[in-house]
Amino acid sequence: MTVPSPLWPFVPAARAVDITHAKGCILHTRGGGEILDASGGAIVSNIGHGRPEVGAATAAAMTSMSYAVPPFLTPERTRLMERLRRAWLPPHLTRSWLASGGSEAVDAACRLAVQHFRAKGDTARWKIVGRDISYHGTTLFTLGIAGHVARKRGFEQLIPDMPLAPTPYALRSPLGRHHPDFDIAAADAFEALVLREGPETIAAFIAEPINGSSGGALMPGPRYWPRVQEICKRHGILLIIDEVMTGFGRTGKAFACAHFEIAPDILVAGKGLAGGYAPIVGVFASEDVVAPLAEGGQSLMFYTYGGHPGACAAADKVLEIMEDENLVARAAERGRALAARLEAALGQHAHVAEIRGEGLLRAVEIVKDRETLERFPESAAVTQRVIGAGLKRGVFFYGGGTGAIRDIVCLGPAFIVSDAELDRMAETLKAAIDEAVAAV
């Protein structure tokens, strides 16, 4: 059900879906309708909606204490930090800092990287290198380190101009479609950029281990990350890994870093941390990164609502449920099941160029011509047509792309998704694509 929304006037009326409550993977609309959430919202939900134990934990925390400034310890913060260290984080990431959203957390991670060098007396390193297909947030700075043309549009004069390296994109590699060296070529292009900019000016390189919705679950290839890590280490550049979307089980491992043996200096992860039950994102760093600040008596300035007691309680309970129900392994298994269904429904579709991803982060790239990879014109708004056609059939898909990269549809359901729900997602996506391209 779509309605004009006087409470949220920045959303076009056609996109304002009136949700009254949700359970599992189902959103219930005013008037009694149901929507199967094939994307976990913005690829956020992991344990599903309506778990009363999370609500109870959050209520208990907020009844006990409404607020404490982030540097103070609270029982909820302490429990969450202990759980993260014990069961989730890579052992070398010993320092934690909490924000309430991905944009502000990435902003803080970049601030930390520059502050690290300044604390050592090195003021020459101030650049943060991003990638040309990426999204790291909507603060003016995080827009500047990302390659998201559509979200930069109209704000160019306000956005810092940071260098962008190529993103490994097997389907559209400059060497040719699925060229076996696409990953090495992208890594070598990164080093060429570093040398052009001057490595002594670069504080950090930031990227997602598996590209999220901006490129639609782009897989980097097996040799990209080992090569990039070696380049960063050799040139003294910190590596910031953005796992806001991929972290906490989404790709079938605790963090997507584990698929490629990435050892980041700074890790940002958050959507799956509380699974949509509360706004909380972590910035996790090594002792080597934080040591110069500590030695100089400096700290990373906090945000007012970072590490809110209620959010920490929700995150702690969500992670407990993930552990007790073995949901990371389930995400891997459900991801394989989803991939098989998408391949059966769309693998030979005339307008589907590729189905890709890992675990329960999957994407489909839609094209005008499957052989030449010609895209539909931007004005055709194919992604929005597919989302609209899906909603008409009671299934919500998540749009991806950057404007320049477009006609991407993402799926990221909760890890509890059933076989019947996966069947419906694949069948509905095929019907939605058929309807969308027929109308162009």
Note the main attributes of this structure.
single chain, 440 residues, alpha/beta, 15% strand, globular
First CA to last CA: what distance?
24 Å
Order of strands across the biggest sheet?
4-10-9-8-7-5-6
What overall form do the CA principal axes indicate? globular
SS strand fraction: 15-25%
Notes on the structure:
The chain is α/β, with parallel strands linked by helices. It is built from 14 helices and 15 strands. Helix 7 packs parallel to helix 8 and helix 12 (about 325-345) runs parallel beside helix 14 (about 420-440). The longest helix has 20 residues, at about 325-345. The protein is globular, with a radius of gyration of 21 Å. Mean pLDDT is about 95; it is low at about 5-15.
Can you give me a brief rundown of this structure?
This protein is of the alpha/beta class. About 40% of the residues lie in helices and about 15% in strands.
List the helices and strands and how they pair.
Blueprint: E1 19-23, E2 26-29, E3 34-37, H1 40-43, H2 52-64, H3 75-88, E4 95-99, H4 102-119, E5 127-131, H5 140-144, H6 149-152, E6 164-165, H7 182-197, E7 202-207, H8 224-234, E8 238-243, E9 266-269, H9 271-274, E10 281-285, H10 287-295, H11 309-324, H12 327-346, E11 352-358, E12 361-366, H13 382-392, E13 395-396, E14 398-400, E15 408-411, H14 419-438
Helix pairs in contact: 2-11, 3-11, 4-10, 7-8, 12-14, 13-14
